């Protein structure tokens, strides 16, 4: 895919998600094609994680959501970017790791394939201020729900079961646009998230 094409797709992606601060970086990052995807993902990860959890620090976080109006265009982009962003050799898709992926391309894939339609809201008062740092993996089911959350590593005065319960409770309200390829819904596995709260 050409650099100009990627810049054009990114511009739409930024507009539809309300993301800011990336447009000026587009031309610079599209030329930086030497960083592996693992590094790109680490750089792009927010301390706020993938969706809001019940912690006092969440009130300072903002989360991108796909609006109903953007979904037709998102489906078009998924068709065009599928091979560049996902490996769907079976009925399960995983993020495609290209050593040549730039930060621009990694963010574009995230916007199109695993930005939620809805992240849910934390309505009840939040009293938990205990510091927490957690790395976790998750999947998006064929119905567009968060599935199979696995805590990979964490720090803080929490139990592993407590951290897992925190993530699962918040994920219950998260909804993604289901991935459909050739009329068949596909599952996306191998996604990762990070929270750094109260530190």
Number of domains: 1
SSE run: HHHHEEHEEHEE
* Low-confidence runs of at least 5 consecutive residues: 2-46
Give the integer mean of the pLDDT values: 77
Q: Give the helix level as a range of percent.
A: 25-40%
- Classification by helices and strands: alpha+beta
Estimate the global geometry from the Cα principal axes. Answer: globular
DSSP E strands, number: 6
Computed over alpha carbons, the radius of gyration is: 17 Å
How much of the sequence is in beta strands? 15-25%
| First and last CA, distance | 41 Å
Q: Work out the helix count.
A: 6
The biggest beta sheet reads:
6 strands, mixed
Structural overview:
It is a single chain. This protein has 199 residues and is an alpha+beta fold. The protein has one domain. It has six helices and six strands. The protein is globular and about 45 Å long. The termini are far apart. Residues 2-46 have low confidence and may be disordered.
Give me the secondary-structure topology.
Layout: H1 3-17, H2 26-30, H3 37-44, H4 71-85, E1 86-87, E2 92-95, H5 103-113, E3 132-140, E4 146-155, H6 160-171, E5 179-181, E6 184-197
Parallel strand pairs: 2-6
Antiparallel strand pairs: 1-2, 3-4, 3-6, 5-6
Helix pairs in contact: 1-5, 4-5
In short:
With 199 residues, this protein is of the alpha+beta class. The protein has helices at 3-17, 26-30, 37-44, 71-85, 103-113, 160-171; strands at 86-87, 92-95, 132-140, 146-155, 179-181, 184-197. It is globular.
What structural keywords apply?
single chain; 6 strands; about 200 residues; 6-stranded mixed sheet; alpha+beta; about 20% strand; disordered N terminus
